[in-house]
Write a structure and sequence with these properties.
The chain has helices spanning about 30-40, 50-60, 65-70, 90-105, 125-140, 180-190, 220-235, 250-260, 280-290, 335-350, 360-365, 395-405; strands at about 10, 15, 20, 45-50, 115-120, 145-150, 170-175, 195-200, 205-210, 240-245, 265, 295, 305-310. It is an alpha/beta fold. It has a single domain, classed as TIM Barrel, CATH 3.20.20. The strands form 3 sheets. It has an 8-stranded parallel sheet. α1 (about 30-40) packs parallel to α4 (about 90-105), α2 packs across α4 and α4 packs parallel to α5 (about 125-140). The radius of gyration is 21 Å and the shape is globular. The mean pLDDT is about 95.
Length: about 425
């Protein structure tokens, strides 16, 4: 019998799922609608808490970002090197996070899981305080699982060790090396609360990468996954290891399962589905993309390399830092490398500053102008039909799930009617 992904299942605590986890994409690209569809099918999907205040405003009619801009409006035209005076209201942050998660969980049907992706690099001028509030709100609102991403998260679990759901909720970590997991396990050993799963994100993944800008090409997902599997087994940590990045076909996924993976995490193929939050124009850009248009750069102020399309609007920008309204990347002292780049450009040319090498990531995440994608984005056109007018047919999450579960080296082009 030919092996296929549908022959496998992943078990977390006492619940069994299809072996597909949709990665978290912000802001509201991995929407509640996408997560709910995946849960209905029986898989696992993430919503993202990136710019969660703005997501709450968009979906639930709150005015957190507007109010924040008004509160700090006197600072908007001041080119300050540090913005430590700009603080998030933790009660508002809790409410925004709770709004988004609770509405999703209340609407959930099916046996699948809805998880939330939490980036440590969303420091919000108060790394510890804002992370603790986001975690607490998600758990209070009933989230099935929390995936810790974009950082080592050495202190994250300690922030919620007294929460009543600390051992109930699924907790996972994204790593790009065995060494990162070793550090986490050593740091959290005193809590006597092991991870429930670990995601191994390889060098072909979309968004932020856990590799150096000049060496990411030297690494291989299968190799790193095997190293992490061997390490978890060596310390008696019997948890699923979930590879991510460049897993484009059902055959790719099945090969990972044959190596001992517990499931696969995928994202890029879901960016062009009906349930995804990307505008239709961006989805069509993804369909039209070519391999040479996929770039890895350092424009993100987080310090991590980031993979995106080469004409992403965020790559070339001279806008004033938008910290008064957003400010999700601000460090503990109110610092951000985009602020530094902008102020340096102003010193050279106050009238027309030209910022090079960095972007106001918060602004472009909110406006869907950061076109992050996995390396295989250029193959999306293989998965659907190009119509006579040059428009590619949109897929559904169910189409993509079915293709992963039952597909091989090629993809099923959905036989959708043309209008």
């Amino acid at each position: 019998m030919n092996d296929k992904l549908d022959n496998y299942r992943i078990k977390l605590k006492d619940t069994e799922y299809l072996p597909i986890m949709i990665g978290g994409m912000g802001m509201d690209i991995s929407t509640s609608k996408l997560a709910l569809e995946a849960a209905q099918i029986g898989g696992i999907a993430h919503i993202s808490d990136a710019l969660i205040n703005a997501v709450s405003d968009k979906l639930h009619g709150t005015s957190f970002t507007k109010d924040r801009k008004e509160k700090y409006k006197e600072y908007i035209t001041k080119n300050l090197p540090l913005k430590d005076h700009i603080q998030f209201n933790l009660d508002e942050l809790y409410q925004a996070s709770y709004n988004v998660v609770q509405a999703t969980m209340d609407a959930k049907k099916g046996q699948g899981g809805v998880f939330i992706n939490m980036m440590e690099k969303l420091t919000m001028a108060d790394p510890k305080g804002t992370m603790q509030v986001r975690l607490k709100a998600a758990m209070d609102a009933g989230i099935d699982g929390i995936t810790m991403s974009a950082g080592l998260h050495l202190g994250t679990m300690g922030l919620i060790q007294d929460h009543p759901r600390f051992r109930d909720v699924n907790l996972g970590l994204i790593v790009s090396s065995k060494r990162a997991l070793e550090l986490f396990v050593k740091k959290t050993a005193r809590l006597n609360r092991p991870l429930d799963y670990v995601v191994v994100e390889g060098p072909l993944a979309g968004g932020h990468l856990g590799f150096k800008i000049d060496t990411w090409q030297d690494f291989d997902l299968a190799t790193i996954t095997q190293e992490v599997i061997e390490y978890t087994r060596s310390i008696g940590l019997n948890i699923p290891v979930i590879p991510a990045g460049g897993i484009f076909t059902g055959a790719d996924a099945t090969k990972m399962m044959q190596l001992g993976a517990g499931a696969v995490q995928v994202a890029t193929r879901f960016t062009v589905t009906e349930e995804c939050g990307f505008p239709t124009s961006t989805q069509q850009r993804y369909f039209r993309s070519l391999e040479e248009e996929v770039v890895v750069n350092l424009v993100s102020p987080t310090g991590y390399p980031m993979r995106m399309l080469n004409d992403s609007p965020c790559i070339s920008t001279n806008m004033r830092p938008n910290c008064e309204q957003l400010g999700f990347i601000l460090g503990s002292k109110g610092e951000c490398s985009y602020i530094d780049a902008y102020n340096a450009a102003v010193a050279i040319n106050p009238e027309k500053p030209e910022v090079k090498g960095k972007t106001c990531l918060c602004t472009f995440m909110k406006s869907y102008g950061t076109w992050t994608c996995g390396h295989m984005v250029y193959r999306l056109k293989e998965t659907t039909n190009e119509l006579a007018d040059g428009i590619y047919q949109q897929l559904t999450a169910k189409d993509v799930f079915h293709d992963y579960l039952n597909g091989g080296e090629t993809h099923i082009k959905p036989a959708l009617p043309t209008l």
